[in-house]
Amino acid sequence: MTSCYNRIAGQSIARIEALSDGVFAVAMTLLVLDLHAPAKEAIASEGALLNALAALAPKLVVYLMSFLTLGIFWVGQQTQLNHTGRANRDLAWLHLAFLFAVTLMPFSTIVMSGFIAYRAALLLYWGNILLLGALLYATWSYAGREQLLSAEVTEDIRQGVRGRIVVSQSLYAVGAALCLVNTYCSLAFIILVQLNYAIAPRLPWHRR
To answer: Are 122 and 183 in contact (CB under 8 A)?
Structure first.
């Protein structure tokens, strides 16, 4: 009976998509809760307000970085689901594990924004990104291995998705390693990587 249940459980791609959209929406909203407007009682002039807003700059940078992170991984998961013809119980649980990593992003963001000069905080943040990437790679690899992908998915598409995850995670690892030099340099590099994937600029040497 258990075997029969496992064969029929978790087969709805639409339900995975719906849950994913909800989890991403909540996680992206929670990111902004770490930003607090300056206390009115502490502001006596426009200059004081500007100084207080300037003090929020590190938190704003980390907020932007985390929003980009979740946006990139939402697009990545959406791309996979769009090319997945059917699901099964194991694939559903792999996507649930991925969503677990998504829910950790507000926490790692709070730690990063509160301790932006500390390597441990940045490595925790990078660990969250690494977990997201590893699980996204696992969902795609499993779907391909179990022949759950749509019929129109070619080997080029399979390799392209895997390659994009590997390259992006490698670049994130370089960014994390830069924290040995300076955490701000590390953050700047990671943001540049994210902007590259978010904007996807068409460079002259890219094939059209």
So the answer is: yes
pLDDT > 50? residue 205:
no
- Cα–Cα distance, 81 to 71 (Å, whole number): 15
Directed axis angle between helix 119-145 and helix 183-199, to 10°? 30
Q: For the chain, where are the E strands, in sequence order?
A: none
With 0-12 / 13-18 / 19 or more C-beta atoms within 10 angstroms meaning exposed / middle / buried, residue 190 is buried
Q: Cβ distance 124 to 111 under 8 Å?
A: yes
**Is 17 in contact with 81 (CB distance < 8 Å)?**
yes
What pTM was estimated for this model as a whole? 0.88
Rounded to 5 degrees, φ, ψ at 147 are 60, 45
What are the tens digits of pLDDT across the range 23-79? 999 999 999 988 777 777 777 788 878 877 787 788 888 999 999 999 999 999 999
Among the listed residues 136, 67, 137, 68, the one whose alpha carbon sits nearest the alpha carbon of residue 101: 136
Question: What are the helix (H) ranges across 9-56?
Answer: 13-31, 46-55
The domain spans of the chain are 2-199
* 138-168 confidence digits (pLDDT tens): 999 999 999 999 989 999 999 999 999 999 9
Residue in this structure with the two tokens 């689901």, named with its chain if needed:
81
Question: DSSP 3-state assignment of 38?
Answer: coil
